[in-house]
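Standup notes, structure subgroup. Blocker cleared on the magnesium ion input:
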Amino acid sequence: MREVVSHGPEDTHRLAAEILSSLPDRAVVALYGDLGSGKTCFVQGLAEAMGITEPVTSPTFTLVNEYKGGRLLTHVDLYRLTHPDEALAMGFEELIESDGITAVEWAERAEELFPAGTLRLRFRTPEDGQTRVITIDEG
Ligand SMILES: Nc1ncnc2c1ncn2[C@@H]1O[C@H](COP(=O)(O)OP(=O)(O)OP(=O)(O)O)[C@@H](O)[C@H]1O
Ligand SMILES: [Mg+2]
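Run returned:
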């Protein structure tokens, strides 16, 4: 378990690049935390580090976006789900077996569906609102 304080979006991008460099070719990254805590910002950092030039936006309405960079980036957002069964219905189990990196926002919506080896990142916005505290849980 490691805790990092990010002082701005660029810091969060840098952390994403650093984490990416230590991930295997295929990995699932589960992102937890409130609205505006920086989950999409982190995925944008992953995309940048993977050489993806397309703008990465939150797939809140589409649930999943795929980007092809040096390898595949699958970006999932479970915000709109109310029950893990809905994740199953959208093919979540197949999605997290995708090649490349699969990053899932609002992972708390489908906690029990993540495979062993999932990297979990928890985002918090402290009172001052200007920083983000990111906890990295490799367990
Ligand atoms: N240190 C920081 N890291 C990331 N984002 C930050 C930071 N400081 C301020 N911000 C701002 O906070 C916002 C984070 O938004 P982002 O869309 O990444 O949140 P989110 O966790 O994906 O929210 P949602 O649950 O709505 O999808 C952005 O507007 C960003 O500019
Ligand atoms: Mg988001």
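Discussed briefly. DSSP finds four helices and seven strands in the chain.
Next: hand off to the docking folks.
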